[in-house]
Write a structure and sequence with these properties.
Structural class: alpha+beta
Organism: Paenibacillus haidiansis
CATH architecture: Alpha-Beta Complex
Shape: globular
Protein name: DUF1801 domain-containing protein
InterPro entries: YdhG-like
Number of domains: 1
CATH topology: Aspartate Aminotransferase, domain 1
Number of helices: 4
C-alpha cells in the first residue's frame, strides 16, 4: 500500500483540498499575489503554490494553524520591522489562520520580490552581453 500523498499539479488542486474557510483565505492570498505580480506564472514547487518570475518569486501554503508565506530571505529582511509581530524565520513567515492576513503588506513584499527578480535577471543578461563583446 502506498501512503505517499498524490502530488498537486495546479494551485486550484492544492486549494481545493482545504476546508471552505481556508480556501477563501488561500484564494484571496492568490489574488493579492496575482495583482502585485501580474506577469508571474503560477506553478507548484515543493508541493506548494508558487509564483515564478525570473525564478521563484513567492510560495505559500496552508497548515492547521497558520498560512505560511515564503518570499525568500530577502523579502523577510526587507520587511522585518513590519513582520515583527508574526513568527518568522530566514525565508518564511507564519500568519495565524484565525486572524486577518496583512494583505497590503503581502502585496508590498511581492512587489519588492518582483523588482528584485527583474533586477537580477537584467544584471545576468547584461553580464552575458558583456562576455560576448
Amino acid at each position: 500500500m502506498n501512503d505517499k500523498p498524490i502530488p498537486f499539479e495546479t494551485i486550484d488542486e492544492y486549494i481545493s483540498n482545504w476546508p471552505a474557510d481556508v480556501q477563501e483565505i488561500l484564494q484571496t492570498l492568490r489574488q493579492v499575489i496575482k495583482n502585485a505580480a501580474p506577469d508571474a506564472k503560477e506553478t507548484i514547487s515543493y508541493q506548494m503554490p508558487t509564483f515564478a518570475l525570473h525564478g521563484n518569486l513567492v510560495h505559500f501554503a496552508a497548515y492547521a494553524k497558520h498560512i505560511g508565506f515564503y518570499p525568500d530571505p530577502s523579502g523577510i529582511e526587507a520587511f522585518k520591522r513590519e513582520l515583527s509581530e508574526y513568527k518568522h524565520a530566514k525565508g518564511s513567515v507564519q500568519f495565524p489562520i484565525d486572524k486577518p492576513l496583512p494583505y497590503d503588506l503581502i502585496s508590498k513584499i511581492v512587489e519588492f520580490r518582483v523588482a528584485e527578480n527583474k533586477d537580477k535577471a537584467a544584471s545576468k543578461l547584461a553580464g552575458k552581453r558583456k562576455k560576448r563583446n
